[in-house]
Write a structure and sequence with these properties.
single chain, 224 residues, alpha/beta, Metallo-beta-lactamase, Chain A, six-stranded mixed beta sheet, binds zinc ion
Length: 224
C-alpha cells in the first residue's frame, strides 16, 4: 500500500515518486538522473506534475533544470530559505552562523512555490527540519505516515542522523551546516512517529522509530 516509489542511483542516492490522483509528486531529483527519473515515471504510467525539493544540495537538485525543461508544466517547490541557496545566494539570515557546507551548484529554474512548515504539496505535509541546510524540510505523507526525510537521516548501513559524520556513510554529516539544529530536527521528525523513513541516501526503512531513537542517542553522545 506504499504510495512512495524509490528511484536510486548506485543504491545510494535517491529520488521518490509519490502517488497522487493527478500524477506523481517527485521529491528530489538526484544528479544527472533526469532520464532515469522520466523513465521510471513513464514505466509506472503517470506524469510527474509536481517537483518538491527537501534542500538545495547538488545531489538533490542536480537534475532539476533538465527535468523542468522536459516537464515545463510541473510545479517546482522548495522552502523559502533554501530557495535563496538554489539561486546561489549564499547570504546569511540574522542569527545564522557558520559556513554553509556541501555542493551549492544552484539551478536556473525559478521555483513556482515557496514552502513553509505546515504547507501541503499534494498529500505531503511540509515539516521544518533545518540544520543540514538552513531551510531543509521533510515531507510527511498524511495518508500513511511515511516520512521523506531528505538528509535529516540517512540509512546507508544503519539509520543515522546528519548531525555528525556516520561511520558507514559520512557524506551527509560532512554536508551539515549546524549540528545542534540538525539534532533538534532529528528529534522533531522522530516525534512524528513515522511508519517508514525514506531518506536521500540509503534504503526505505519501515517501522523506523527504534532505529531513529538509537541514531539520536548516538548523536547526543557524540555531540556531548
Ligand atoms: Zn544534503
Amino acid at each position: 500500500m506504499s504510495t512512495i516509489h524509490r528511484i536510486s542511483r548506485f543504491g545510494l542516492m535517491n529520488a521518490f515518486l509519490v502517488d497522487e490522483d493527478d500524477g506523481f509528486t517527485l521529491v528530489d531529483t538526484m544528479l544527472g538522473a533526469d532520464q532515469k527519473i522520466l523513465g521510471a515515471a513513464a514505466g509506472l504510467g503517470k506524469p510527474i506534475v509536481r517537483i518538491a525539493l527537501t534542500h538545495a544540495h547538488g545531489d538533490h537538485i542536480g537534475s532539476l533544470d533538465a527535468l523542468k525543461a522536459a516537464l515545463p508544466e510541473a510545479e517546482v517547490s522548495i522552502s523559502v530559505r533554501d530557495a535563496r541557496l538554489l539561486a546561489k545566494d549564499m547570504s546569511h539570515d540574522p542569527g545564522e552562523e557558520g559556513t554553509f557546507k556541501g555542493d551549492y551548484r544552484g539551478a536556473k529554474t525559478t521555483p513556482d512555490v515557496l514552502l513553509s512548515a505546515g504547507d501541503r504539496v499534494g498529500s505531503l505535509e511540509v515539516v521544518a527540519a533545518p540544520g543540514h541546510t538552513p531551510g531543509h524540510v521533510a515531507f510527511l505523507d498524511t495518508r500513511d505516515g511515511a516520512l521523506i526525510c531528505g538528509d535529516a537521516f540517512a540509512t546507508v548501513g544503519a539509520v543515522a542522523t546528519c548531525a555528525k559524520p556516520a561511520a558507514r556513510f559520512p557524506l551527509t554529516g560532512f554536508g551539515t551546516w549546524n549540528r545542534d539544529l540538525a539534532l533538534e530536527s532529528a528529534r522533531a521528525l522522530r516525534a512524528l512517529d513515522p511508519t517508514s523513513l525514506a531518506p536521500g541516501h540509503g534504503k526505505i526503512v519501515t517501522g523506523p522509530v527504534a532505529a531513529m531513537d538509537a541514531a539520536i542517542a548516538r548523536t547526543e553522545k557524540a555531540l556531548a
